[in-house]
Amino acid sequence: MKKLLNLLIIHVVCMFFSCFYYGQLTSVKIDKNISYQKITGFGGFVCSPTFGYNHMTTLEIQTLWGAASEGGYNIMRLYIPENSNNWSSVLPTAQLAKSMGLTIFASPWTMPAAWKTNNHVNAVYTDPNGVQQIGSLKPENYQDYALYLNSFVTYLQTNGV
After folding, report:
1. Domain ranges of the chain
2. Is the pLDDT of residue 97 over 60?
3. Do the beta carbons of residue 122 and residue 135 sit within 8 Å?
4. Do the strands 132-134 and 103-108 form a parallel or antiparallel pair, or are they unpaired?
């Protein structure tokens, strides 16, 4: 044990010495006239009323998004409901974002349960028998899902977004 402790102490001292002896001060030069990367903006997710919780009010959205807001966000991510009957729940927020001049993008969290191998909206769930079921999109529904997502975009466009 004593030998192990001595080796550990020697190792730590050697690391300290090498960092101290070989370490060099580093300087960074920033030239504001040279662009290395374009940043489109900053943003966040707006929870859909479909979830029934944490949906932001218009005032809360205006506090975080927009050039004159406290947050300064200019990109808003929307949720694409897995049931097209719920698309209308996203529309008012999308229309508000459009009226504020925000960049809007939407992302699905799941596809309709009938198109999944586990026939459930969750990617992973435990069935009544205690067996974990992992779901993925069935190959025969690839085109259906692509058309579904495209229909969501068309729905927003038709409604001014």
Report:
1. 41-158
2. yes
3. yes
4. unpaired
Query: Tokens in use for 19?
Result: 């960092």
Contact assessment for residue 74 and residue 136, using Cβ atoms and an 8 Å cutoff: no
The two beta strands, 103-108 and 124-126, are: unpaired
Q: Coil, strand or helix: which one is 21? A: helix
Helices (H) and strands (E) in the chain — how many of each? 4, 5
Averaged pLDDT for residues 39-64: 75
The whole-angstrom separation of Cα 130 and Cα 142 is 29
Q: Please name the CATH architecture into which domain 41-158 falls.
A: Alpha-Beta Barrel (3.20)
Considering the entire predicted model, what is its pTM? 0.69
Tell me the pLDDT band of 1, cut-offs 50, 70 and 90: very low
Would you put residue 66 in left (φ > 0), alpha (ψ -120 to 50) or beta? left
Tell me what pLDDT residue 2 has. Answer: 45
Q: What residue type is 131 in one-letter code?
A: V
Give the single-character DSSP code of 128. Answer: T
Which pairs count as long-range contacts for 6-12, CB under 8 Å and 24+ apart, including other chains?
none
**First-to-last C-alpha distance (Å) of the chain:** 70
